[in-house]
Design goal:
alpha+beta, two-stranded antiparallel sheet
Length: 168
């Protein structure tokens, strides 16, 4: 599986919103792409199994779901995620891990770029998660992995909340 390091040529002051700009410039040549950048997530199986499960999800982009809304001091669209994820422990989008059809990712990233260039949103610079929270309600074909069938967020989980059998 090819690895794309969008930040490998970046030389400057880093902020997480750069992930969107770098993704927009990335030359992705595969039909599907997995984005992973976080220390609080794990894959539950091989990339081929992740892809197989993703194809059964009936969406074009799937995000990891987490237990707590982040960043908590900027609850942009939190009410939307509370509503659609109301029956789930892991109900909030985690932009640190996702899988997508490459063509759809390009469309979604273009929507994110519009928000990054929106002067009203500029006060949120530094967080790509805020930008994804903003575009999530208006983009079709995006879903969250509420049941942790593909991704498992491990941030602040308690005994009994992990939904896969870890091997460690």
């Amino acid at each position: 599986y090819p690895i794309l390091n969008c930040a490998s040529d970046f030389d400057g002051n880093w902020s997480n919103d750069m992930k969107i700009r770098l993704l927009a410039k990335a030359n992705i040549k595969t039909k599907y792409v997995i984005g992973a950048d976080s220390s609080d997530i794990v894959f539950i199986d091989s990339p081929s199994e992740v892809l197989r499960r993703f194809k059964n999800k009936n969406c074009k982009m799937l995000f990891n779901a987490e237990k707590f809304y982040f960043p908590s001091d900027m609850p942009v669209r939190k009410d939307f995620q509370d509503f659609i994820g109301k029956n789930h422990i892991f109900k909030y989008m985690n932009a640190g891990l996702w899988i997508a059809e490459t063509e759809y990712l390009k469309f979604a990233v273009d929507e994110c770029l519009k928000e990054l260039n929106n002067s009203k949103i500029c006060k949120y610079t530094g967080s790509e998660q805020i930008i994804w929270h903003i575009v999530f309600p208006r983009l079709r074909d995006i879903a969250l992995d509420y049941e942790c069938e593909i991704f498992q967020n491990i941030a602040k989980v308690e005994k009994g909340e992990i939904s896969f059998a870890p091997v460690f």
